Amino acid sequence: MAQERIVPEFKVEPGIITRDEGLLLYEDMMLGRLFEDKCAEMYYRGKMFGFVHLYNGQEAVSTGVIRALRRDEDYVCSTYRDHVHALSAGVSAQEVMAELFGKETGCSKGRGGSMHMFSQKHRLLGGYAFVAEGIPVATGCAYQSLYRRKALGDSSADQVTAAFFGDGACNNGQFFECLNMAALWKLPILYVVENNKWAIGMAHERATSQPEIYKKASVFGMHGVEVDGMDVLAVRAAATEAIARARAGEGPTLIEALTYRFRGHSLADPDELRSKEEKDFWFVRDPIKKLTAYLTEQNLASEEELKAIESKVQEEINDAVKFAEESPEPDASELYRYVFAED
To answer: b/e map of 90-121 (b: 16 or more CB within 10 Å)?
Structure first.
């Protein structure tokens, strides 16, 4: 059962954070949580269409990894559960919400919707609807960084790529092929497995012969680490180490973050397959509550300060909804625009 793996075998020391770092992590996680809550509200009010996969419960992974990268320099490759990855990467709540509304002002010009967030400015390589589809894209991105540095002599090309995917993707051939290439060429990439225990309705332990995904790295001579994905400080520590290794030319890292989604697979999922006992086990490990306790216990922030941040974030999200509602629809005359690259 999922409960058996809550304590990682490979422990990562959370380290010490400053007050400013703690507040930044808290605000980023709160933005992700409240944004997704608003998405659920808007979806059920008929403002969004198609499939919408929310990220509630997994915020420590996005914040812990992406906020350890260099913003607007390093690369992030997402999945169909991509809203919060986009927010952590720096895409504004307005642009993400407008994209969900299918508006021209969205980060993908209203053409992508929930599963296809993209931002060239923020080095967000996209969300991908097919399982494991983004892994080869991220691997290719990491290769171009290495090629520019080694073959073209560009000393500034030290960018690191973070590829996010779920436990279900780890039984896909692309996962193995890309890990092999990344290890062989020592690519500057983090492969981040968000193991939330379920691949839609398939329990992880029933789908793979080796449920401890991080151990698969050893087959390729790659560094692998298991981390508590409900602890942002632990994720951040693992990511920081992996990023430093990648930037120093020491190759890729496979990070398995043990986490849990608090909602169904998508907003169309009645979520009847997971037991109440399992959900209750993970709900008490809410990553935001865990960080809140740490910040207050370490006297890095007061409850009043954290509530003020929450209120600020809620206003930002309400503004994003207003922006999305007032934004124009894509013009039908531009139906074929963005199919091909433009000069």
So the answer is: bbbbbbbbbbbbbbebbbbbbbbbbbbbbbee
